[in-house]
Backbone:
């Protein structure tokens, strides 16, 4: 008896890994199969990165309402944390289980479109007429539109109204004013200005306002315009107006410093507004200052777009495109902007939005001129971003002069 | 491998029970052999699936142009040594190698010396010994990412508690740029890693100390070997096996440390804390150059393997002695 049982156990144990492997294999063949193109679509799968409320519920409501309006009964939505989204997409791509509708951060669109995973929205009659230039160029790859972005954000200068008023300082409009204002506002434990200069894409993103505003370009990082922008960051730190810790401060750290009263001004985005309001900070927002009189302030475009992955199911893809269109309707653009502290990407709506929500005026102007990180370089952007943040760190830690930092960083 | 061995011995010890009579012995022996094999099969399969496959896949990947596209098209053309050439000729590579060496050596020396001293200290009996020893395990209980976030706050230049304390004590006049100066950041990261590694060293060395028979010390004391002499002639030789295990595991763990550096500096400032492990992570999961990431991790595996070989040889020599 005992022997028999032992044999059975051994056999079971041998089988276990095989069954597990079989399950793994079976799961992958799930959603890929192409149904008939005339089949009725009663559900769509959606992948996005709004895992926390209020955004999570707001997106859910909007998706469900759009689903109803296009005649799709069920939206199967799966939000995953932002940093893991691309990895999730890669897993799904290799197992042929991509969702019907996919949310992508705007600088990732071209890279994913290049792999052939996304369907061109032009094929479904979707055009981006009346949109600001930034979001369209971010979502365009080889002349075709792959994503539609309902609302955008960017970064601008936040300042503490009370602190500036007390010191008799006006919000800076030029780089010179930024330097003198920051210097004047540096008192005791309070720095005049705070920004993020970490060794990652976040640090590169925060360097773009000075670089682009000054006419610098990502295709030529060794230009004097870029060097001047590096010099500005260096001057602010050398003056003592910004902490040396900026090389290790993420945008959330910068916001913490601002809330704690350890920075009178900061470079940051509208997603920080809820925490500022919660902490009852009396703040104002202005676009990033310009260096020379003839310049306009240019900031990088942020925010995410809705895309339609190639799943092979024509009927579902058609419905998915309709869902993307609905998520970008005028009504939904305004709603999303108000809910998420964002700016509508259709220019006409942005103007109206500025009147309705004056507190966001500083960002509305910035978004109109906002430039997409991938607008010029497309999928080559990550390599350039790496050079930008490395060069920036070399300058701020005194290991290279602004003029040759980018060359030293591999640019 | 050890799994397979223990399973095999398990089947052996269970065999007397299954042999019920002499008449069934011959057939039973063959079945017994078969059973032994059956017991090994699951472990062997698990090893092949969980260790063999990833290693082979990683080696293959390092010779392929494995990028984002591969996930969608399934195509990863072979490119020979291109990935290895690309990672080795990268400007940051030599820095990463030096940093990896400094980080590993610094961490191991610090962890081992402090762990050893603490183990010797706790080996003496005194009140609250157990409580204190348990407290020293705390760093081990905290999730790494939480630990590094806490240390990032502690080491903050302007308002971090370490600088504030040192300034109040009058040890320093100006705040130390722990994580913001390229010259000091690596040292700061090593210090945090030492903090993290002490429990591991302390626990293993402490248990090694407890295995040394008390009589040896008593006999030694009669011959005049006390204090430092007792340590050198009794403790150290008896602890050597444990020490070599601790050091080898320590080296292999430390070579591949990633989370602490990611949490503290992300390799900055200005690449001052870049290591091979961090480079590998960034290539694969930030830049999506999976082929290059695999090449770097293979380089790490070879280095770890070299240490494992050194350990095995040293161990064999000890056994021979």
Residues:
């Amino acid at each position: 008896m005992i022997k028999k049982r032992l044999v059975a156990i051994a056999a079971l144990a041998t089988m276990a890994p095989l069954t597990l492997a079989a399950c793994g294999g079976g799961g992958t063949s799930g959603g890929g199969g192409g149904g008939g193109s005339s089949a009725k679509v009663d559900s769509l799968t959606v992948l996005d990165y709004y895992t926390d409320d209020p955004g999570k519920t707001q997106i859910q409501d909007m998706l469900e309402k759009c689903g109803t309006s296009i005649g799709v009964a069920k939206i199967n939505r799966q939000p995953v944390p932002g940093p893991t989204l691309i990895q999730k997409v890669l897993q799904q791509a290799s197992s042929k289980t991509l969702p019907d509708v996919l949310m992508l951060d705007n600088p990732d669109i071209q890279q994913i479109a290049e792999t052939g995973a996304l369907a061109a929205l032009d094929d479904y009659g979707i055009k981006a007429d009346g949109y600001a230039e930034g979001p369209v160029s971010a979502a365009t790859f080889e002349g075709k539109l792959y994503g539609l972005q309902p609302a955008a954000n960017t970064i601008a200068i936040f300042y503490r109204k009370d602190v500036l008023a007390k010191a008799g300082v006006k919000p800076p409009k030029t780089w010179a004013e930024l330097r003198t204002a920051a210097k004047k506002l540096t008192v005791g434990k309070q720095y005049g200005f705070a920004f993020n200069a970490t060794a990652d894409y976040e640090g590169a993103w925060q360097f773009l306002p000075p670089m682009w505003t000054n006419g610098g370009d990502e295709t030529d990082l060794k230009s004097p315009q870029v060097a001047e922008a590096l010099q500005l960051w260096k001057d602010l730190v050398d003056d003592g107006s910004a902490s040396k810790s900026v090389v290790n401060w993420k945008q959330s750290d910068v916001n913490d410093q601002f809330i704690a009263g350890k920075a009178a001004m900061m470079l940051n985005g509208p997603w920080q507004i809820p925490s500022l309001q919660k902490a009852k900070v009396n703040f104002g927002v202005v676009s990033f200052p310009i260096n020379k009189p003839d310049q306009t302030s240019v900031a990088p475009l942020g925010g995410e777009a809705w895309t339609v992955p190639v799943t092979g199911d024509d009927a579902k893809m058609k419905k998915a495109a309709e869902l993307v269109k609905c998520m970008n309707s005028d009504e939904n653009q305004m709603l999303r902007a108000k809910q998420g502290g964002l700016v509508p990407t259709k220019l006409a709506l942005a103007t109206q939005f500025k009147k309705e929500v004056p507190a966001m005026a500083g960002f509305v102007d910035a978004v109109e001129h906002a430039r997409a990180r991938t607008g010029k370089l497309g999928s080559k952007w990550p390599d350039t971003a790496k050079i930008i943040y490395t060069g920036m760190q070399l300058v701020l830690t005194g290991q290279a002069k602004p003029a040759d930092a980018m060359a030293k960083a591999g640019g | 491998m050890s799994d397979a061995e223990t399973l095999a011995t398990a089947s052996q010890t269970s065999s007397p029970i299954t042999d019920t009579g002499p008449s069934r012995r011959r057939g039973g022996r063959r079945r017994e052999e078969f059973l032994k094999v059956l017991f090994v099969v699951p472990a062997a399969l698990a090893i092949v699936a969980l260790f063999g496959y990833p290693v082979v896949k990683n080696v293959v990947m390092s010779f392929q142009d494995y990028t984002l596209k591969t996930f969608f098209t399934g195509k990863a053309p072979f490119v020979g040594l291109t990935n290895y050439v690309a990672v080795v000729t990268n400007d940051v590579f030599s820095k990463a190698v030096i940093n990896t060496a400094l980080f590993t050596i610094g961490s191991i020396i610090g962890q081992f010396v402090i762990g050893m001293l603490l183990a010797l200290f706790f080996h003496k009996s005194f009140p609250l010994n157990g409580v204190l020893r348990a407290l020293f395990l705390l760093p081990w209980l905290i999730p790494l990412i939480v630990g590094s976030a806490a240390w990032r706050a502690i080491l903050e230049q302007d308002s971090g508690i370490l600088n504030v304390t040192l300034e109040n004590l009058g040890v320093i006049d100006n705040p130390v740029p722990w994580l913001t100066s390229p010259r000091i950041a690596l040292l700061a990261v090593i210090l945090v890693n030492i903090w993290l590694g002490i429990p591991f060293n302390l626990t293993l060395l402490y248990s090694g100390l407890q295995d040394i028979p008390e009589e040896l010390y008593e006999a030694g004391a009669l011959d005049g070997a006390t204090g430092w002499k007792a340590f050198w002639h009794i403790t150290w030789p008896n602890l050597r096996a444990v020490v070599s295990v601790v050091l080898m595991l320590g080296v292999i763990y430390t070579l591949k440390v990633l989370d602490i550096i990611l949490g503290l500096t992300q390799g900055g400032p200005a690449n001052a804390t870049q290591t091979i492990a961090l480079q590998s992570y960034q290539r694969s999961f930030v830049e999506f150059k999976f082929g290059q990431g695999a090449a770097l991790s293979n380089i790490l595996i070879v280095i770890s393997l070299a240490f494992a070989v050194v350990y095995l040889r040293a161990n064999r020599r000890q056994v021979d002695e």
Observations:
- Confidence is low (pLDDT under 50) at residues 1-19 of chain B.
- Chain B touches chain A at residues 14, 17-18, 31, 35, 38-39, 41-42, 45-46, 49, 68-69, 71-74, 91, 152, 156-159, 177, 179-182, 265-272, 285-288 (CB under 8 Å).
- Chain B has 15 helices and no strands.
- The two ends of chain B are 26 Å apart (CA to CA).
